Please model this.
Amino acid sequence: MCAISFPDFPQSSSRMSDVRRHRGRGKRQTIADIPCTFSGCGRRFRSTGALTNHTRTEHRNPTLVGGAKIQRASSLAPMLESGADSPPTNAESEPLRPLSPESEERASESRDIDVGSADIPSLSLWFVPSLVVSNSETDHSPGRPCDEDGNDLPDGAKPAPRRPPSPTNWNPYDDEVQFRVADFVFRRDQMSKGNIQEMLQIWALDNLKHDDIAPFANADHLYETIDATELGDAPWKCLVTQPLADGADAPEWARKSYEVWYRDPDVVVKNMLDNPDFVGLFDPAPYVEVDANDQRRWSDFMSANFAWSHASQIFHNDPTTEGAMICPLFFGADKTTVSVGTGDVSYHPGYTSIGNFHSSLRRAHRGAVIPFIFLAIPKSMLDRAIHQEILTRIGERKYDNDPAFRTFKRQLYHASWAAVLASLRPGMTVPVVRRCPDGHFRRVIYDFGPFIADYPEQVQLAGIVQGWCPKCTALAHDLDGPIGTTRSQALTEQHIQAFDGDPKTLWENYGINTDVIPFTHDFPRADIHEMLSPDLLHQLIKGTFKDHLVDWVYIPAIQGLLPPDIVQALSTFLDFCYLVRRRDFDEATLQEINATVYKYHGQREVFRTAGVRPDGFSLPRQHSMANYASEIKQFGVPYGVCSSITESRHITAVDEALGQMLLTNQRLDKLTASRADFEERGMLPPQYKALPDKTSEQDDDADEEPVDIPRVDGTVELARTAGLIPIPLHLRYSYKLLARAYPRNIYSLGDHIGLPHFHDLVEAYLADQPSHNSDADSNSDNDMNEEISTIRFSVFHSAIATFFAPSDQSGIRGMKRERIRCTPSWGKHKRVRRDCAYVVDSEKDDAAGFAGLSAVRVCLFFSFTLNGVYHPCALVEWFETVGRRPDPETGMWVVKRQMEGRTRLTTVVHLNTMLRSAHLIPVFGTRAIPTDLRYYHSLDAFDAFHVNKYIDHHANEIAF
Model:
């Protein structure tokens, strides 16, 4: 441990003292009444409630926060979410007072320029225009390659090799076998030390017969070899705070020192940039993406306004930075509790990433999201002399309500971040030379980008009061109301100056906690309010849906079915979740997002009228929905800045004791860096998963999985292994036929599956195929029958669809694969399983969404070769739509069985018409469902089905 005196600790920091004097608790200023904030209106009021009523009545179309033109729900009852801390005690509270026009002007000047689509010149499909947001033609070429000394390279110059391309230099490993063993047992299998020891002993015992030894002498030898790796090395260090007090009468938390474990963020960022594994998934400069109609699109972070405006600001403040690459740094933090040994242990890890990385790379991890800090968690313990049982029951909670202890925890939190990030400060104004994934050196300017956090952490970061919004100044009791503007550090300082730092007034009327100085105060261009990013996981999925809507639905629905208005509200909210989870956005999608919020705000009123939410909906997590469209313009796709990215790192970051955990993460980073280096030098093949058509259905039970393969538009291919047992169409619920193999002749196969006219369906299919039509006119029916009778057919129990689905859990390039099954024996109960799928309907080429698709149920996967042409096919039963548009209550299309006379319409289709699997949910109706009906009966027992567009994000994008 490196024991270091904690720098910039809140009680001794000169900066903290200066700001504290600035935020001094002066005398209360009395104000006679509250003026209306709208220009030209002279009305004044004695309470904020009266001002709210006046604004809603007299000013019907105000400029809403975040640019979202949405009719807000009326909520006049003052209400705060439970759990708000009490304000600092001092003078009496003052009523809400607007800032002077001069103060508002100064505050607005501090906010970044919003680069809308109207500001962007229309040039080409992909381009990197000037970062000067104006009509100027100046282009300072950000992200220009240079040499190791920072001198610009000529256009087209190739990067120097990172290391000599020696195919035999496995340093620090002896050879390929030694590295692959270490990589497998430690990174991929995460084998325990005891198991590693036993494996190596068995290996050595076997090698004795050949007078040879195992790759490693023992587990310690393996660990020492990994530790000797220089690539990816970012050792853990420790900051130790100085105790606040040493007197016996001081509380124990004030007499303690606290440890903050961290890795130098400058070294961590340098290692991430110098990773050749990220080539092709990295943007060296902000860019603007436009479609074929010159409409702007937002996708990865560097396509959004934040990077654009900050790069412009850097260049205008210092023209000598021309050609430098802006490197926006992502941060994230999420306190978590894990079981270690016999008890629960809390950790508060922090993470970092780089905004130049594509969102898919951050979600796939692979070293693009790195834990680099473990914050201290002060505990309010009693003196250790007290009996352990009392300590266990009440000791850790004694000071939880002590304002001094709460203030200390907040200040320690921000001081820790400021101290650890201090090594980045020089590189935020003066470029530093760093090697990038493409091998080029570039002069890099660091910048603080999004901070990923859930709402409680956002409260602590922003220095606001629980129940208020960290992004805007909307009133806590009416968050979706018309009063409020964008929060910023400059605006907060203006409020503090206007009220002489009176903590009670600022706490109650503006939601400002004067005891907190955000750590961003120490860094150029950093504003914590601007940095806080939208959070799909905690704001929408866990917050609004799980904690709000699910509870609101179940409470009134215990004794009966759900009213249609509640179903519509749930459907609209799900539509919003799927919209904001998409991979890219254009102006039309952003307008659709705002329209969906407006629709949901109207539909959720059913919960107020039903008595579930009589006080309204002033809830910070739901309030965040109104800002998503503007936040997408600012940060790019929300799924690239979601806390699910950092939460998923808990698996590797916080599953063991702290000391071992830090060492484990360090070794994992070194192995990842070594593999990337060996792959770049051609010593190891790229770590792609096997292509889907090489997968046997006998050894793969996964219905879907991400795949790391180069992007393709989409394919459906039969499994490599042919099936062994046929599927009679007339056997719905059970299967008793035991055949050793399928017949290969078309007529025998038709009889075997209970479809004697199977050959007619194959002939009809062939008649529609271009490769067969050339000979069709010259062949008689007899010739056709003779030709088909000689074909040998193969039957398969599944097909594999591979498609681009970056919004779902996918590989590093956005690819995903899934199995479409048609098997007589599946699962524990060995039931028949025949999946449904989407097929592209040639008669609906011009239609969008599900209107251009059809749903089918697979009855048989088979293939044959005719005249040298391979035909992978599926025998399918068709569904037809009910109505011309989705069901208005659920928002989903409804289909029913398509009949041909009194039988199901059944045809043969080529697999290239099949898109992917489809999920159909029965329309249950009002009749009671038989108790003996099982899930595998559903597609046969019901007449109509919902086409589930909510099964995943890709389905939501194609089946609307």
User: Anything to note?
Assistant: The chain is about 30% helix and 15% strand. The chain has a mean pLDDT of 75. The first strand starts at residue 34 and ends at 35.
